[in-house]
């Protein structure tokens, strides 16, 4: 019988300090998340310096709690797997520096994890049977991509946003209509009270591409609200939500035609949006299998990082103590 492999994931790329212990890349033993959302709500968005300072305050406490909840010691950990990008550089450095110190002190392998790969891996925890290849629709505050997941560690980006990420567009729309931060969940909630009856533009590229653009739709919503401050905000949110979802799905269907793969996963914070989830589930009527992470695994967390770290570790990836944070790291 093969030995179980325990990975310790450490996530600090934005405003969540999280440490998790995961067994064999699929089973969560602990997943402790210390969120800073109440702090950043006062400012209408994440303040990088404040985020970094709060990561420093929380990281040791969160690590201790994760070990206690998993009922294991450092000696039982097989690899320490921190996020090293993309994200806010100061925030990334807190988790990465802590991971490097742990690696040095415990003589455990250090295996850096791409945050985007972590979001994709959230599906492996939710669906124990899921295996590559598949198409992943990555949608978050910093990234919007259609990814061909060829195997556990090999990826091809088929299309990406050329300007705003979809989560960024949600946050900006929320701010304009007065909903505040975090924008995504608040737009989703208000949209349920409205009708998607406002015509909004879509960006289409002339060339053969799976790329996105969400800047135009965001600007259209802002301009409509400025011209008519009394516009029904619920209808505006519902119309915006419908528009961006249709844009996502149009390109996903092109990706299915291009690759012949009829297995789709969602990933990233915006994949928690109820309207987007329901619309993607309709693809199953066309013979396409759709996978979506548990809601608690959509937003930033260390369990997904530990899962991705496991697959990096078993593939032979190792990093030394010179590993640095890469805020604009690509997949």
Q: What does it look like?
A:
The chain has 331 residues and is α/β, with parallel strands linked by helices. The chain is built from 10 helices and 10 strands. The chain folds into 2 domains: 6-119 and 298-314, ATPase, nucleotide binding domain (Nucleotidyltransferase, domain 5), CATH 3.30.420; 132-293, 2-Layer Sandwich (Nucleotidyltransferase, domain 5). A 5-stranded mixed β-sheet has the order 3-2-1-4-5, sandwiched between helices. It has a 5-stranded mixed β-sheet with strand order 8-7-6-9-10, with helices on both faces. Strand 6 and strand 7 (144-149) form a beta hairpin. The longest helix has 27 residues, at 233-259. The protein is globular and about 60 Å long. The protein starts with 5 loop residues before the first strand and ends in a 17-residue tail after the last helix. The mean pLDDT is 94.
Please give a handful of descriptors for the protein shown.
331 residues, alpha/beta, Nucleotidyltransferase, domain 5, 2 domains
Write the layout of secondary structure elements.
Blueprint: E1 6-11, E2 16-23, E3 27-35, H1 37-41, H2 48-70, E4 79-85, H3 89-106, E5 113-114, H4 115-126, E6 134-139, E7 144-149, E8 155-160, H5 166-176, H6 183-191, H7 215-227, H8 233-259, E9 263-267, H9 274-281, E10 289-291, H10 302-314
Parallel strand pairs: 1-4, 4-5, 6-9, 9-10
Antiparallel strand pairs: 1-2, 2-3, 6-7, 7-8
Helix pairs in contact: 2-3, 4-10, 5-6, 5-7, 6-8, 7-8, 8-9
- The overall pLDDT average reads 94
Total discrete domains: 2
Report the structural category: alpha/beta
Question: What general form does the structure show?
Answer: globular
Separation of the first and last Cα atoms: 34 Å
Number of helices: 10
């Amino acid at each position: 019988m093969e030995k179980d492999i325990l990975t310790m994931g450490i996530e600090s790329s934005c405003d969540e300090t999280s440490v998790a212990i995961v067994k064999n890349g699929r089973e969560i033993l602990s997943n402790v998340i210390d969120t800073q959302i109440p702090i950043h709500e006062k400012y209408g968005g994440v303040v990088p310096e404040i985020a970094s300072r709060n990561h420093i305050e929380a990281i040791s406490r969160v690590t201790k709690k994760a070990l206690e909840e998993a009922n294991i010691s450092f000696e039982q950990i097989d690899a320490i797997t921190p996020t090293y990008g993309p994200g806010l550089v100061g925030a990334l450095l807190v988790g990465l520096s802590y991971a490097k110190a742990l690696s040095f002190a415990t003589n455990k392998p250090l295996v850096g994890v791409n945050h985007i790969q972590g979001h994709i891996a959230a599906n492996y925890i939710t669906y124990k049977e899921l295996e590559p290849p598949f198409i992943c629709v990555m949608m978050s505050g910093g990234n919007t991509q259609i990814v061909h997941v060829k195997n556990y560690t090999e990826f091809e980006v088929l299309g990406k946003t050329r300007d705003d990420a979809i989560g960024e567009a949600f946050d900006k729309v929320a701010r304009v209509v007065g909903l505040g931060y975090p924008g995504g969940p608040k737009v989703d909630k208000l949209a349920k009270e409205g009708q998607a009856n406002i015509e909004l533009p879509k960006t289409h590229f002339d060339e053969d591409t799976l790329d996105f653009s969400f800047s135009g739709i965001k600007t259209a919503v802002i301009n409509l609200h400025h011209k008519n401050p009394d516009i029904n905000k619920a209808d505006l949110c519902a119309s915006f939500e419908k528009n961006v979802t249709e844009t996502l799905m149009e390109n996903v269907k092109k990706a299915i035609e291009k690759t012949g793969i009829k297995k789709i996963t969602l990933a990233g914070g915006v994949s928690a949006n109820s309207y987007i989830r329901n619309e993607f589930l309709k693809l199953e009527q066309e013979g396409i299998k759709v996978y979506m992470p548990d809601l608690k695994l959509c937003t930033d967390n260390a369990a997904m990082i530990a899962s991705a770290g496991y697959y990096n570790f078993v593939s032979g990836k190792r990093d030394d103590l010179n590993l640095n944070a890469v805020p604009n790291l690509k997949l």
